[in-house]
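Q: What would this complex look like in 3D?
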Amino acid sequence: MQLVGSDLVCVRGGRPVFSGLGFAVATGQALVVSGPNGAGKTSLLRMIAGLLRLEAGRIDLRGGASELTTAEQAHFLGHQDALKSALTVTENLQFWTRYLGAGGVGAALDAVGLGGLAELPAGYLSAGQRRRLSVARLLAIKRPIWLLDEPTAALDVSGQGRLAELMHKHLAGGGMIVAATHGPLGIDADKELRLGL
Amino acid sequence: MDALAAVFIRDMRIATRIGGGALMGVLFFLAVVILLPFAIGPDLALLRRIGPAILWIGALLASLLALDRLFAADHEDGSLDLILLGRSPLELVIIAKALSHWLTTGLPLVLVSPVLGLFLNLEPVAIGAVMLTLLIGTPALTFIGVIGAALAVMLRRGGLLLPVLVLPLTIPVLIFGVSAANAAVVGPVPFATPLAILGALTLMSLVVGPVAAAAALRQGSE
Amino acid sequence: MALIDFANPSRFVALVERVLPWLVVATLFTFGVGLYQTFFIAPDDYQQGATVKIMFIHVPSAWLGMFCWGLMSLASLGTLVWRHPLADVAAKSAAPIGAAFTFLCLVTGSLWGRPMWGTYWVWDARLTSVLVMFLMYLGLIALWRSVDDPARAGRAAAILTLVGAVNLPIIKFSVDWWNTLHQPASVFRLGGPTIDPSILVPLAWMAIAFTLLFVTLHLAAMRTEILRRRIRTLRLMQVHSAQGA
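A: Here is my prediction, written as structure tokens for the whole assembly.
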């Protein structure tokens, strides 16, 4: 499976943020997108996820499930955590697995160390714990393409280490990652993209 | 299908746990029904004649004002982005959300209307007719209202703009709802005709509303 | 000069500037003929006298109000479906003009009815439908102005315009129903007596004149809007370069 983008243009507020952008990332590879704020990292991820319309260029997924769009085979970890405070930790995760398809809520929670808090309302979680719950969501929704927007934000050192481990496992298991970040992620970038220069 | 049921159940859970939404709507309905006699005067005969109209206006305003949070909450915490990544058609997801919103906000208005009908000196037939027309018509108001709710998310605006945009679209529902309620009491038109048209409006809005709202949400995520 | 010129804003502006003087002349000419016909050819009504001639402004205004919503609907399809670059410019420029014609229809209708009804407004079915349409125009204009980014506003307005287009016939039907319920005696219809050829010809001239007026105003407004957006882009570029690369 290969995700290829070519001639991509991003326009915000009437001015081009980037143009003529291309990238290619294959199964088992991680593409790291870096650059200053406003360079268009989030926009690029949203374009791949199908949340932002392409003004020009194209993004193709070769070799994936042909009856599904790219968006349906990707999962997006954005700046926000998509958590409902009124629902418990388990209920939050269960909703997403039922809606986006897949399972393994209990195992996912254990993998990020939230197993003990499963029945607590999500409103009580700290910022770092909420982030970990989002990572659990990534694990439970077994989609091959991970689109991560600053995944290490709000995570402490051990949390970042755990995330790096999970990312390695995902890549080894045949997934691919496109991650936007300011700082180091703890994994080797197979491909790199620098925006805003 | 399981995905849509998940959306419905989640929204119902949140609405029932946080609460307040149904109560707010009912209180606003009550406030409107109480305000009007202060403005009109306690002439019971007059209130009985325009009672169905007052109840419909109150229910309409209460329905519309409650809708602007429908998508805003999901937009603010990032859930909307993930919902757009799902495999179910967005239109059906919106119907599931609208349905749960109606059950938790619209239906309470219907159930409370008989009590408010007593304040307006309505006779039992009128109260029954108003309840029935509200039962059929408030879902239409919700489905039309989701258009405004989706545009609010698209424009990142709230306030009065969205009710102003949506109110003209609800005029047909209002006309036929009140007409049916009055027809049950007074005639001259048989009750079934405007009631059937009201039902048709609800079915039409079931299609037009979610389709337009889905278009707005997709455009708005950019 | 191909159809593609309509898609390029600069070429479009140049085209408008060439065509506009001719359109102004044509508009003035047809108004001249139409007004002459109205005052000197069309007969007075046996019941209303000369006031029936307000109809020659009132009826074309109503038509233009509806025509404009139809035009905006087409433009909305252009924005949402074909992503034509000038579609939302066309829609945004048309809205205030359509609202103005609708308002003119309401005012002339009210003035026309005053001698017959004794008041300025009696919730006549047709006028009430036009009033609702006027309200929808105002809402649409408010929506255009509520957001700074013209592209985002354009998409929202496009959706609302199309929803409005679907709803306007339903609203018309509902208002007619409502009116027959509440006004059993037939109130004097603003349509006047049956259309007679001596009325039809001046009416047609006025309709053409109004349509030309609309086209003239619309093209001028589109040009202004394109220039306005250019200024906005220039200002954004200025801000961006001032921040330092």
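A: To summarize the key features: Residues 86 and 185 of chain B are 49 Å apart (CA to CA). Chain B is about 85% helix and 0% strand.
Q: Very helpful, thank you.
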